[in-house]
Amino acid sequence: MGAQVGKLKVWIMTDLEGVAGVFSFEGHASSKGRWYDLSRRLLTQEVNAAIEGALEVGGSDVLVVDGHGEGGINAEELNPEARLLSGRPLLLPWGLEKGFDAAFIIGQHAMAGVEKAHLSHTESHVSVQNVWINGKKVGELGMIAAIAGYFGVPLVLATGDRAACIEALSIVPGIETAAVKEGLSHGAAVSISPARSRSLIKEKARAALLKKDEIKPYKVRPPVELTVEYTEAYKASAEHLASKPWAEKVDARTVRIRDEDLLEAFGKWF
Ligand SMILES: [Zn+2]
What we know:
The chain is of the alpha/beta class. It folds into 2 domains: 8-214, Dipeptide transport protein (Rossmann fold, 3-Layer(aba) Sandwich); 224-269, no CATH class. Helix content is 30%, strand content 26%. It contains 7 helices and 12 strands. It has helices at 25-29, 36-56, 140-150, 162-171, 194-210, 235-242, 262-269; strands at 8-14, 59-65, 82-85, 102-108, 128-133, 136-138, 155-161, 176-183, 189-191, 224-230, 247-251, 254-259. The strands form 2 sheets. A 7-stranded mixed β-sheet has the order 3-2-1-4-7-8-9, with helices on both faces. A hairpin with a 2-residue loop joins strand 5 and strand 6. Helix 2 (36-56) packs parallel to helix 5 (194-210). The termini are far apart. Zinc ion (ZN) binds at residues 15, 17, 109, 140. Zinc ion (ZN) binds next to loops.
């Protein structure tokens, strides 16, 4: 079977919009969509490919987090070697703790506002415009990398559309990526086939774990400053958050949260 790196604990965050064959919010990524069940199967099979790759090089304890809005993992189809964290609310820190050797993100989309990023958004395509951590604009990838980094866990693999992969490399140098589709616009993309995406993801998962010691956890230095800009339609959410004693209003739709502790800062926002 080749190279192995011993018994590894692997944490896998998942999302739906960055999966090969998933093309829309309404039809594919919403539970009311006509292709939602298909999308869940496509995501679950991509996750299984990552799990298989991990198991081949020494992964032994794998925790999968069902991160997409209403959930996107089909529990029955998930590789039986993995455990699944799902249900809502998904409480921070999403099952992470010290002792995990590596983190993966499967099915990720890019942050809001990126060109040629398919189905890009940050947390919510309805309510949130932008998010910054200590002045650096981040999307979900950056937030997840930071929360994993808080526990000393390196994010070693990201899969999704090409824009998400580029974003991952800008946050975590050396991270392995699998670009399974390329956005032509926010709504349209060219995807590789699900079968191809699975073999690519499996190969990248193996490679990522074999080089995990070369990849540094993404650490945010305290004090933490979390800035959230809401959309115009959700100004009231900014207003509400800004009324808290630990928050500060930046402008009518932007709020800043300060805390010594990254998790506390996120907890205040969520
Ligand atoms: Zn997302």
